[in-house]
Design a protein that fits this description.
Blueprint: H1 24-32, H2 42-56, E1 62-68, E2 71-77, H3 82-90
Antiparallel strand pairs: 1-2
Length: about 100
C-alpha cells in the first residue's frame, strides 16, 4: 500500500493501492476494433480522465494526472472506497 511505512511502497504520500486497470484487456480490444479512440495528446487525455472520474462516474471528488513518459499516474483525492481497498490489500501479501 502506498503511504504505509511497511513493505514495498515505503513513502510519505497519501495511502493508496497501485494497480493495473482491471479493464485493460477491454480497452485494448476496443482500440484494436477502432471502437474506442483515446486522445493522443496528454492534455486531452488528462481532461477526458477528469471528466470520466470526477463528473460521470463520481469515483473521486478530484483527481491529479501525472505523466512519466508513456505511463500515466492518476491520483484519486477523497476516494470514498479507499478503506475497502486497504482491507483487500491487507489480505494479499505481494501488495504489502
Amino acid at each position: 500500500m502506498k503511504g504505509a511505512a511497511q513493505g514495498y511502497f515505503q513513502n510519505t504520500e497519501p495511502a493508496g493501492v497501485v494497480t493495473q486497470p482491471s479493464c485493460d484487456q477491454l480497452i485494448q480490444d476496443l482500440q484494436t476494433r477502432n471502437a474506442l479512440i483515446i486522445p493522443e495528446k496528454e492534455e486531452e487525455l488528462s481532461l477526458l480522465l477528469r471528466e470520466a472520474v470526477e463528473d460521470v462516474f463520481k469515483f473521486a471528488q478530484r483527481i491529479s494526472v501525472t505523466w512519466s513518459g508513456s505511463r500515466v499516474i492518476i491520483t484519486f483525492h477523497q476516494y470514498p472506497f479507499i478503506y475497502g481497498c486497504k482491507k483487500i490489500a491487507q489480505g494479499i501479501p505481494f501488495l504489502l
